Amino acid sequence: MVYAPEFLPERIKADDQIDLFGEPVYRIDLFYEKYHLTVLLEICIAIDSGTAKKLRRAGTKIVMVAYGNRYVLDQEAICFGHLPRSNMSANYADRNLLRETTHRDAIWMSPHFAWQKDYYKHRFNANVAHVCPYVWDPEMVDKRYKDSGLYEDKSPLFHPNNPANKNVFSTEPNINVLKTSLFPFQAFNLAYETLGDELGDLYLYNTAHVVKENKKITSYFSHFPSTQAGKIKCLSRHGYPHITNSAQIMFHHHFQNGLNYTLLEAARLRLPIVHNSEFMPELGYYYNGANLTAASAQTVSALSHQDRDDLEEYDHQCNKVIEKFWIHNRENIRGYQTLIANLLDSSIEPELPQYIVDLENKLDHGDGYISPLG
CB within 8 A of 317, min separation 6: which ones? Predict the structure, then answer.
């Protein structure tokens, strides 16, 4: 890890390194001459072209690790970036769409953006583009639950007879078309038409600003039986311990964004999970694509989750999905080791987990809208 000294207080500018969360963090300017930096990974941040040139002269390889759905974000910037901001929130499509001048030696991207591989390569002026393993570790979510204070006298894991077992929650951010609350709302309403008051409430997080500012969606919601019955709760952003204290059935819906840490967090808690992630169809209550009939039926099934006679097998399946993306999974570690090796010697082929190999074999990167389902 490196840091830029110009953004730090005078008292530590002279230090070669500082301690950050228990890890040594080094001054980036010292890598030009004092230290030798073999590889720099840009993760959720990009260095400027001047810094990149200095590092490159010192022999440093530069890799951008891309986690955003850049193709969709770029198209939104073109169509909606000019729109004025509202009084309550930013225009999330108002983002830079500059020609990239900083040359990268490679782009690494999450598997759910594999269909954009060629686009990423040219978009960020890189030599090559590779899909990298998607990794997660439960340590942070475990700590959040331990520190929350809500579970001192009870377990956060799913258990029968919890009053929250009838309630559904969705955490989609509602900042672009990839993940919104519209489909979860529609599926819940269909389930409510089947179950009536056997089904609890729907907690739609990250929607308070939407229903306040977007009168069209408020009007749309108002005509549904579940809304008229007072079942819909449109809330702001909250932490996972708070969310699962109110509702236990997770509903996650995506559009070409099939990997999400909230799914793994729900798996960690053994929750009934209604979702359409093609990367983990073996998890929870899966439905395909945007099939509302199937999504509604799976929501109905999830309501009876506590009555299943195979809950131990369900928990085991949750563990297997977590293991697939676990940061300590040997296949994932080997994937990153060989990606770095390929960066230093292009004759070394990356050895990626089998699900990534299978995914790439299905793709035609010339089709900008192809689904990972093939």
Answer: 282, 283
Q: Which domain holds residue 82?
A: 36-135+329-362
- What secondary structure letter does DSSP report for 260? -
Q: Does one domain contain both 312 and 254?
A: yes
Q: Count, in order, helices (H) and strands (E) of the chain.
A: 15, 13
DSSP-assigned states of every residue in 175-186: SSTTS-SHHHHH
Written as six digits, the tokens of 278 are 């093609």
Query: Would the pTM of this model clear 0.85, i.e. be above it?
Result: yes
Measured on CA atoms in the order 247, 188, 321, 119, is the torsion positive or negative? negative
Tokens 């899909």 belong to 131
List the 2-3 sheet strands across, edge first.
2-3, 23-27, 17-20
Helix ranges, 34-181 (H): 49-57, 70-80, 117-123, 139-148
173 inside domain:
yes
What are φ and ψ of residue 299, in 5° steps? -65, -40
Start-end of H helices in the chain: 10-13, 49-57, 70-80, 117-123, 139-148, 182-195, 208-213, 215-222, 225-228, 240-246, 261-268, 292-303, 311-325, 330-344, 354-362
221 shares its domain with 341: no
Residue environment code for 155-189, b if the CB has 16+ CB neighbours within 10 A, otherwise e: ebebeeebebbbbbbbbbebbbebbbbbbbbbbbb
- pLDDT digits 0-9 by tens, 253-304: 999 889 999 999 999 999 999 999 999 999 999 999 999 999 999 999 999 9
